[in-house]
Predict the structure.
Amino acid sequence: MDINQLNYFINIVECGCNLSLTAKKIHISQSALSQLINNFENDHEVLLFNRKNGRLENLTSAGAKFYDYAQEIVRQYDEMLEMIRKESAKQKGTIRIGIPSMVLRVYFSALIPKFTLENPDIQIEFIEDGTLELRKMLVDKDLDYAVLLEPTNLDDKKFEQYVIQINEMTAFMSPQHPLAEKNLLQWSDIMNYPIATFNKHFLTHQLLLEKLNKINKDKQIMFKSSSWDYLIEATKETDIVTVLPSPINQYLDSTQTVEKHFESPIPFNVLICRPIKDKYSDIESLVFENIINYFYQPIID
């Protein structure tokens, strides 16, 4: 069997040996699937499936072993293609950067267009996700760089990490909210109100939940989303308190939404991270140095 036929075989097994269901799933005729199995069994003089009334029922012992090998071969084949895709991207001058969507919009919207115009042969591919998933992708070598929130929990011996922005999490609410008149919030102030923030794929969700549970271990985050726009909208005409990174405030209408700082805030520190290598390519170095220089440029009075 070639790689496509192995995929057909795997799908047959995963569909409970139902050829009709498999045919609909992978858009191939039922007769072609049946012929594939029969030809293989005849050519190799082995039965992959037990049959009942002419229908496939389940895997034989040989079929089960073949299924395990098929899964591993397809997995390695997919990994090989992904490796080739990445190597091709590098040769074409493509750098993959993992970054949370909000951080991309707030901190990189000015840098990247300018860099791209000045370096048209270098392509930057952004992978947008939460810090937890991006960290995993960086460790698994699926990214060249990742923009992560602190704490990154990366091994300092394997990854370089540079802080590029320092900020904090703040509370957003309606101007009519009972807490809107307070100058500075305690965490206990928001415990009697519904709380909203990013979903569990974001590190900010985890950090906020840990902070709340120190006061009341039963306190839950009621509203969760990957969209900060939705989370802000949820505060209008309600008592919902949305806890999000403070930089979001620059995009909000102050007549519709109030931002309040905490006396003991959760840090929102942004870091650019990359694997430590003996040597970086010219393109890798150029992109990284431009990011660092952009955020570390001296302040001129």
DSSP finds ten helices and eleven strands in the chain.
